[in-house]
C-alpha cells in the first residue's frame, strides 16, 4: 500500500493490507489500483482481478517523530546491541538505571543483548566500564523509514518491486 507519492506508507513493517481491504478501498475510491495479481475474485454480479499494489488518493503526512515504542527503538538501533554490537535476541537497557532516576525515554534507552544488559545491571556506564556505540537519541520519522528499508520482508511479490527501493547492499 503506497502513499500518494508512490512510496510505501511504511517500510518496516512494510505497509500491507488484506486483499479485502484493498478491494473495499478501491470501491470507495480511496485508492487507485496500480498493479494486479492474476487471481480473480467473483461476486454474483462481477469479477475483478485482485489488486497487488494500490496507491492512496490523499497523501498521508507522516508524523515528524515516530512513537516511542519497543519496535521503533530496536529499529533505531538496527537490532544491534549498543554496547557490543551483537545481533539477535534483544532486550532494552536504561543507560542511567531506573534505580538512579533514569527515565524511559528515547534519550535514555538503548537496545542491548541479554549478556550486556546483565553485565551492566544497575550500574552507570562509568561504573560498569562500558561504552555506547553512540549516545541514545530521538530519531525522526525519515530516519526510521530509511532504516526500515534495510529489513525487507521474506516474501515480496514481483509486482511490488517497482515501488520498493531496498538498499542495494542488502540484496546480495
Ligand atoms: Zn551486547
TrEMBL record:
It comes from Paralimibaculum aggregatum. SMART domains: HNHc. It comes from the Bacteria. This is HNH endonuclease. The lineage of its organism: Bacteria, Pseudomonadati, Pseudomonadota, Alphaproteobacteria, Rhodobacterales. One of its GO terms (molecular function) is endonuclease activity. Residues 68-118 form the HNH nuclease domain. Keywords: Endonuclease, Hydrolase, Nuclease. The keyword Transport does not apply.
Amino acid at each position: 500500500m503506497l502513499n500518494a507519492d508512490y512510496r510505501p506508507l511504511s517500510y518496516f513493517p512494510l505497509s500491507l493490507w488484506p486483499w479485502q481491504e484493498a478491494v473495499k478501498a478501491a470501491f470507495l475510491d480511496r485508492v487507485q489500483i496500480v498493479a494486479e495479481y492474476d487471481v480473480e475474485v467473483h461476486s454474483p454480479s462481477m469479477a475483478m482481478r485482485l489488486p497487488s499494489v494500490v496507491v492512496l488518493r490523499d497523501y498521508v503526512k507522516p508524523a515528524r517523530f515516530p512513537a516511542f515504542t519497543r519496535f521503533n527503538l530496536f529499529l533505531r538501533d538496527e537490532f544491534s546491541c549498543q554496547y557490543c554490537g551483537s545481533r539477535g535476541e534483544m532486550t532494552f537497557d536504561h543507560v542511567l538505571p531506573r534505580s538512579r532516576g533514569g527515565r524511559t525515554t528515547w534519550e535514555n534507552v538503548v537496545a542491548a543483548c541479554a549478556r550486556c544488559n546483565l553485565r551492566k545491571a544497575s550500574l552507570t556506564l562509568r561504573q560498569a566500564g562500558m561504552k555506547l556505540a553512540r549516545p541514545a537519541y530521538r530519531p525522526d520519522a525519515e530516519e526510521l523509514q530509511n532504516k526500515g528499508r534495510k529489513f525487507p520482508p521474506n516474501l515480496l511479490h514481483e509486482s511490488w518491486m517497482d515501488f520498493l527501493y531496498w538498499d542495494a547492499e542488502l540484496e546480495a
